[in-house]
């Protein structure tokens, strides 16, 4: 399996957190076993699938979805199970809070808990990106195709001048300041609490309180993945939960299962991928 992360070019860094490329061949594997749980995360995404078609099961909608060649994913609160095809290639951009709205003009509040085909939202220029990725076999070139598109969008759309709130939002994830009070965050953005909440909702697509819960939930799951020897109570305390019961509440709401059950599903996928995926040229 190929897994690559790349930082965006300097002009895009206020908007894009990172690029990611994944390529795996699931040779001879029962598709039902090539399933990865994808609980909601703080980022919003622009995905491209240049090879075989991806299928997902959306828990919030209770249905299976066949993805087009490219999708925009807005603010999520529901788990999605990824069902990988035999030749899985994904190239994507992860956006900082507010970045998708500012750079691409996406009405994120209208994308709450679902995705949409990129062409329907971003126009025909996305088709050229899809075609170029489908023709490309070099991974570095694929990431370059995506970045060239985003840089062109930046030059063409000329996002609105940055406001204090726009500078604050990308800092919320790495600093963990989503747990700060609404009044404190509003003061940092030079806004009243009501103005801050309205601006946050416009840029991120959900309330600051709900977003803080998603960030904390995501941090808990990633911490347990990185440090499996930590017990769940220690994980809960480290990421700011009052107790284990509150951690379980969020896992059941956002992932539909308890923390150990979600980790077991992720571990099962990792084990299957390690045994069955292989590397071949793109």
UniProtKB/TrEMBL annotation:
<dbReference type="Pfam" id="PF12833">
    <property type="entry name" value="HTH_18"/>
</dbReference>
<protein>
    <submittedName>
        <fullName>Helix-turn-helix domain-containing protein</fullName>
    </submittedName>
</protein>
<dbReference type="InterPro" id="IPR009057">
    <property type="entry name" value="Homeodomain-like_sf"/>
</dbReference>
<dbReference type="GO" id="GO:0003700">
    <property type="term" value="F:DNA-binding transcription factor activity"/>
</dbReference>
<keyword id="KW-0804">Transcription</keyword>
<dbReference type="GO" id="GO:0043565">
    <property type="term" value="F:sequence-specific DNA binding"/>
</dbReference>
<dbReference type="InterPro" id="IPR046532">
    <property type="entry name" value="DUF6597"/>
</dbReference>
<keyword id="KW-0238">DNA-binding</keyword>
<feature type="domain" description="HTH araC/xylS-type">
    <location>
        <begin position="166"/>
        <end position="265"/>
    </location>
</feature>
<dbReference type="Pfam" id="PF20240">
    <property type="entry name" value="DUF6597"/>
</dbReference>
<keyword id="KW-0805">Transcription regulation</keyword>
<dbReference type="InterPro" id="IPR050204">
    <property type="entry name" value="AraC_XylS_family_regulators"/>
</dbReference>
<dbReference type="InterPro" id="IPR018060">
    <property type="entry name" value="HTH_AraC"/>
</dbReference>
